Amino acid sequence: MEPSVAEGHPLPPARSFDVRMLFPGAILGAAAYAVTLAVSLAALALSVAGAGFGQDGAGKLPSNLPVPAGTVPSPWQIFFQLAVQLVAMSQFGALGTSVEASVPFLGTVHGSGSVFAVPLLLTAVAAAVCFFGGRRAGNRRPSGSTAHVWVESAATGAVFCLLVNVAAAVFAIAVPAPMVKISPLSAVSFGSIVVSLVVATLATVAGRASARPGTISARWSPWLRPLWAVSVHFGIFLGVAVPLAVLVLGVQFGWPMTLSTLLWAPTAGLYLLGLGHLSPLARSWGMSSIGSSSSNVAGSDFSFGMGLAQFGLPVWAAWLLVLLAVVVSLATSVFWYLRRNPEPGSGIKQWAELPVAFLAAGLLASWMSTVSGSFDASSLASGNGALTLTPLTGLILAVWGLGIEVSARHAAPRLVSYIPLSIIHRILPQSLHAAPGVGVIPDAGLFGAEAPLERHPAASGDASNARAPHEPAPLHPALAAREPLSARSKRNLVTVLGGAGLVAVLVVGLTVMVNVIKGSNGPDKLVASYLQALEDGQASKALTLADPGLANDQRSLLTDAVYSKAAKRIDGFTILSTKTTDTTATVVAELRQDGRKQQSTFTLHKTNPELLDDHWTMDSAPLGKLTVSSTSPIQKALVDGQETTLAITGSEYGNKGTQFPVFPGEYTIELPPTEKYLTAQKAVVLVSIDNYTGSANLSIEPSEALKTEAAAQADALLATCAKSTDFRPKGCPFGTYSFSTTRNVQWTLTKKPTYKLSGTSGSGWALSTDTSGEAKANYERDASYGFGAADWKPDSTTATISFSATVTAQDNTVHLNYNGY
Description:
By secondary structure, this protein is an alpha+beta fold. The strands form 7 sheets. The protein has a 7-stranded antiparallel β-sheet with strand order 3-1-2-6-7-4-5.
C-alpha cells in the first residue's frame, strides 16, 4: 500500500485513476446488452408465433396491416433486426424512417414516419443486469471512492449506449418498395442515446452503492426513502393486475394472445394502474390531406369501461382495479410507517415527501406508457395518434400519496399489530431496531408464538435517528410487546380471516366466471361466428345468426348448396373493436377477400339478457345484390353447379334483369345440362366486399336441336296446310288466287323450303325461310265464268312458300308461332 493510503489519506481520484478499472464496467455494459438482446429475441419469437397462430399460419405476417401485400417482409425474415430495434426502443428510441417518391404533377415528395412505444420489460432487464452486475462487482472489488464508482458505472453506461445505438443503426430494417425510396427503419434517436446511457449508469451506481452503503451520501437518503414506498406500491399493484389482465385476455381472445405478453403487458399494466387510481386514459389522433381541411380528434376516457375497452377488459374489472388500489394503498401505508421515523413531525417537508414521490412516479409512468405514431408526407398528407396516461396522472397519484401519508399516521399504527414480527423486522431499517442489551420481545403475532428479537447495532445512516453511543436506540412502536391471543381468539381470528378470504375468492371467482362465460357469448363472438360461417360457405348458419327478413322467393341464392360452391368467398377477418352500451353493441371487423380489405360495422342488441348470457342478436347484416339478365326468357339456371329457379323474363339486349340477394363471393351462372334447346356461355361475376354488387348477363343462343325442332314444326305446319281444300288455306304460308269459280282443290308440296333462325326481341327467335319452297294446287275451274252452263276444266297453279314465325323454348318445349302475312 502506498504511504499516503497507509496514513489514512487516500489518493485523490485523479492520481488513483487506472484505466484498467474501466474494463469490468465495460464488460458489464456488453453483458447487459447481450442479455437484453437475448430476452428481446425470445419475446419477439413468442409474439410472432402467437400472431402466426392467430392468423391460422405459424409465423405469418398478420394480414390486417395497412400496407400493400408483399411490401413488408415477414417477421421471420427480419427477426434479428426487429429484436435489435426493440432493444433500442426499450431505451426510448423512436422507430422511424423517411420516404422519397415521385408524384405526378407534384414532383418529388419527401415524407417521414415514426412509432414510439417502449417495451418496458427490456428496459427493466437492462437495468436489472446493470444493478446486480454492479452489486457483484462492488462486493468482489470495492471501489476506492465515490468518484471511482461513478467512473466505473459511466464505463458501463457508455458501452451499453454504444452497443444499443450502433447495433440499431447497423441492423436497420430495409423495406423495398417499387418507385418509392424508403430509408431503413431504425430506432436510433436522441432519446435512445441519452436514456441508454443514463439508465445503465444509474443502475450500476445503485448496484455498487447497495454493496457499499457508504457510497451514497446520507443527505440523499431522505430523498430516496419515499421512492421505496412508491416502488412497493407499484410493484404490488402491477404484480396482481398484470397477471389477471393477461389471464382474462387469454380466455377472451385465445392463448396465442398471451405469447406476446412480454412486450405489451408492462405498458398495459401502467394503463391499468392509472385507471385503478381514477386517472384518465388519453387518446388522440389527427389526419390531414391535400385539398381538405385538417381533421383532428382528441379525447380522454374517464369512464372505466371505455378505458378498459382498449384492452378488451370488461367494465366490472374497473371496480376490481379500484378495490385493488385501495388495498395496496393500505399495505403501502404500513410499509411507509415502518420504514421511516415513527414520529415524522408535522412540517410541510414531512407531509410532502411521499406525495412528491408519487407525483414524480406518475409523470414518469405517463411518459413511459406513451404509444404514439406519426407520419408526414410533405403537403400531401400528415397524421398522428397516441395512447397514454395523461399528465393528470401525476397529480392524481400525488393525491393518493397524500392519502397514504394520512393512513400511515393514523391507520397503519393499528394495522401493524396484526403483522407478524418476523415480517416487521425485515421491513424496519436497522436504525429502528432494538439497540444492544434491550433483550427479547415476546412476539405473539397472529398465533401467539414467541420470537427472539435480533440485536442490531444502532445505525447512523439517518441523521434524524442518530443517538449518542451510550444511549440505546428506541424501539419502534411496532416492536412493542403484544398480549398473546387466547386460543378462542385465535380460532375466531382464523375463522374471520379465513371466511373473509373465502368470500373474496368466491366473489372474484364467480365474477370472473360469470364474465368469462358472458364474454364467450359476447357480441364480438357472435359477429366472429357469422363471418366464420361466410368464410366456410355456411349460408344457412349465417342466416340464422343474422336473419335479413327476406321473403322465401328471394332466398334462392342464399343456400348452402349455392354458397358452399361459390369461389372467392371471405377468406379471413379480424375483429377490430367492440363498443358496448347498455343494450346495444357495435362491432367493427375487417374482412378480407381475394386480397381486398374492407371494414364492416355490425350492430347488435340484447334480447332478454340473463345472468350468464346477454343473448346478443345481430341486426340485419349487409347483403350483396346480384343482378342476372338474359337475352331470352329462362326459368332455371345452374348457379355454382346448383340448379336454381330464376324466372328471368329476358330482353333483346339483356337490360332487364332480376336482382337476387347474395353473400360476398364469385358466382358462376350457366344453363343447366338438362336444357336441350338453348345454349349460352357461362357468366362469372364477383360480388366483392367493397361494393357488394355484381351483374351477369346470359347471351342465349338456339341450339342445333332447337333449329331442327323449329324446322320440323314448320314442316308440320306446311303438311297440315297441304291438306286444306281452300285456295287460300287459313293460317298457312301459301295460297293463290283464281278469277273463276273453283272446286276439288288439292295441294301438293313440290319443294320444301329451308329455314334460318335470326335475332331475338327477348320473346323468341325469328324463324324465316332461307330458300323458298313451292306448293302446287290442282283444281277444277269454271271456264264459263258464269255465262251459261258451268264448264269445269282441270287446272293447276304454283305458290311460293315464304313465311316468318316466332320460336320460343321454355321448359324444354319449343313453341312455333306463325306470324302470317
